[in-house]
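User: hey, got a sec? need DAK1 domain protein folded
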Amino acid sequence: MKKFINEADDVVDEAMEGFTDCYGNYYEKHPEVNAVILKEPRKDKVALVIGGGSGHEPMFNGFVGEGLGDAAACGNVFASPDPGTIYETALAVESGKGVLFVYGNYAGDNLNFDMAEELLEDEGIESAHVRVWDDCASAPKERLTDRRGIAGDLFVIKIAGAACDRGMELAEAVKVAERARDNVRSIGVATTPGQIPGLDKPTFEIADDEMEYGMGIHGERGIERTKMKPADEIVEYLYHNIKSDMELSKGDEVCVLVNGLGSTTVLEMSIAYRKLKALLDADGIAVHDADINSYCTCQEMGGFSISLLKLDDTLRELYDMPCYCPYYAKKGK
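Assistant: Yep! Here you go:
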């Protein structure tokens, strides 16, 4: 697999340096660890720290900004940041109101963020976390907390960022971020693998005429491998899995994300959204806002995911608050 890199061991460091140099008006790199820090964060509020493995860009470092994360702790490719990195990242942005961590529900992240929280506790700094588990293909509903976090991370980050910027206390910000997490579902489909820089083999193998429903963003096994199908048929499968899992019904209102996994084009994702919108309309489910983009990727993986956030009055109000970073912006309503 051809990649535009120098040495594989330097990929994350060099990418972080390039990213913060390019967007130096907004960000600075932490001087000691791989973390992106918002240059002028609001003080006297709960600090929102997001993070996870590199290789899913622009998730997570690309979602630091106004109304979003105050900082992102970044690990190696497809690997959690270590506890020291998370701890130092939190210290850099904490301003006396505590720290809220938002990250995907993976064993390494859970362990390392928990350890970082213990270090903060030793310093007398209050912290809490919200683990995102939106991938409804990764475990059955009765094992909800075993599910993985994928593109639905973005909706939770958006709501949590708005809650923190509004000045909510830590406990209240946790509550609304958990409400967002509990009201978002995602599922994807993959057609080609991604490959970690420096490795000889891709994350998985699949025939040219095949696809796999429910594939994870690290190449984790999905729920069904089948021959390629028309876009409309694929979208129907994904939508009905989400609809049944989150019990959507007529009169509900949702935000929609069609997320590319790395190499899928906006043209293809637009065709997918066209069918998805028709299905939502037919079921009497209103679309409050929608987005087509590649926000949570797996290197050059082919495929896309669908995420739906079911709104209530509180979530709608927070979602409609303005936010800005180079990769994601909402004007506000």
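Quick note: The chain has a mean pLDDT of 97. Let me know if you need anything else on DAK1 domain protein.
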